[in-house]
């Protein structure tokens, strides 16, 4: 029987208080630059697209602008598409895949669909290579009224005027080995519950909305990504990360109930991507390309099969 050492912060079975959260925060350090990696790329894109600051994180002494890139040829009669990345800052290809889509493919959709891309929803977590924000809150469980996460609340304000015009929303994520070595053990410790290990799937998969599953849409995205990188198989129980596989590479969650980012709109077509960057069969370039392929396939399917009701 495998045993796991207790997480180094807190007392097993007891949820964290202010002291434990302060201890956790004291262990975080900047490992990369939001300004160099993200803001500099967005600056290069300003001549081609509109850039909107939809909020600002005040994480003294640092502040982080929250930026969205929008179609310059915005037409009110067109449907809309939302692309989000970096809700979990440590999930690198979500951020860089979103930026790569803007740089290389977004202009191809001019006059067909209005696009809003928020490439780095959680810039502090991007720099720290963290899942949570500065307050040990998971932004991707915080997309609800009275959100405890500034990152989530700001994105919800950005999206609110567009809700009834959005046809598709694709939220770009990764599942990494550190989910099991760090982030899920930290979550269990924070909440004072036992950590139950799970298996990290080797490959790309999608999370759909169990309340609006859209299986043909999910299959189209999987088919496009399969041309770029491998799709995660089901485990011995027919599941991926504990959820039943409903189609190759697809699981479903009750997204609005869980406060997930892909539940913030009323779009017909929604999905969360999950790239596996730690696979020996995938390079960082493939991971970014998989995100771009997923975005393009999602938009293409939505344009071919749906309209805003």
TrEMBL record:
Record-linked InterPro entries:
Peptidase_M14
Q: Which domain of life is it from?
A: Bacteria
Where does the Peptidase M14 domain start and stop, copy by copy? 30-309
Gene3D superfamilies, per database record = Zn peptidases (3.40.630.10)
> Which family does the entry's similarity section mention?
Belongs to the peptidase M14 family.
Q: What is this protein called?
A: M14 family metallocarboxypeptidase
């Amino acid at each position: 029987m495998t045993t796991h050492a207790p997480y180094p912060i807190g007392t097993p079975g007891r949820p964290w208080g202010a002291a434990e959260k302060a201890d956790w925060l004291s262990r975080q350090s900047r490992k990369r630059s939001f300004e160099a990696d993200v803001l500099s790329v967005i600056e290069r894109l300003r001549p081609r697209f509109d850039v909107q600051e939809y909020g600002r994180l005040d994480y003294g002494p640092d502040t982080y602008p929250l930026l969205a890139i929008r179609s310059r040829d915005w037409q009110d009669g067109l449907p809309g598409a939302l692309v989000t990345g970096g809700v979990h800052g440590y999930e690198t290809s979500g951020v860089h895949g979103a930026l790569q889509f803007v740089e290389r493919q977004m202009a191809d959709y001019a006059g067909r669909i209005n696009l809003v891309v928020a490439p780095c929803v959680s810039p502090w977590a991007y720099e720290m290579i963290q899942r949570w924000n500065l307050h040990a809150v998971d932004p991707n469980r915080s997309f609800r009224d009275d959100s405890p996460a500034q990152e989530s609340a700001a994105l919800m304000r950005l999206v609110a005027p567009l809700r009834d015009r959005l046809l598709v929303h694709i939220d770009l994520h990764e599942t990494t080995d550190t989910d099991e070595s760090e982030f899920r053990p930290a979550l269990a410790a924070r909440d004072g519950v036992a950590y139950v290990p799970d298996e990290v799937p080797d490959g790309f998969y999608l999370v759909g909305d169990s309340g609006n599953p859209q299986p043909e849409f999910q299959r189209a995205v999987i088919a496009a990504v399969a041309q770029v990188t491998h799709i995660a198989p089901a485990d011995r129980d027919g599941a991926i990360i504990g959820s039943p596989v409903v189609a190759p590479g697809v699981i479903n969650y009750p997204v609005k109930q869980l406060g997930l980012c892909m539940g913030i709109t009323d779009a017909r077509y929604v999905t969360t991507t999950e790239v596996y960057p730690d696979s020996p069969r995938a390079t960082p370039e493939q991971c970014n390309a998989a995100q771009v392929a997923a975005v393009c396939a999602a938009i293409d399917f939505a344009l071919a099969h749906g309209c805003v009701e």
